[in-house]
Target: Serine-threonine/tyrosine-protein kinase catalytic domain-containing protein
Amino acid sequence: AIGEGQRYIQNNAEELETLQDDVCSFGCIILEALMGSKLHRKGDPFILSELVMSLSCQEEREHVLDPVVLGTSSQDSLSMVVSITIKCLSVESSTRPSIEEVLWNLQYAAQVQATADGDLRSEVSSQAC
Model:
């Protein structure tokens, strides 16, 4: 019976590790969406740790992120997405967020963006009057 308990713990640890790897992979997908064609234009293979450092620095973000993303995203929404992306890409798997936390943050960032878009639309329509 002890062996089965150990196997259960080992299987759960492996499953948790797999989930953390999935979170990291999802972070890579978000990173690709944020960078767009810049990711593939660089020519050199990118080093993930350097990209994460660039994302962490507000001034360097403009050089790393796709101009379309920068031009169409509110600062608050973009900061939330970048922040959760950086957490997903953490080298230490135990510090990565759960997939539920990632999804919650992305949904919240989408709400913030929708509010900013609504504010922008009402600003434009009030200027038209």
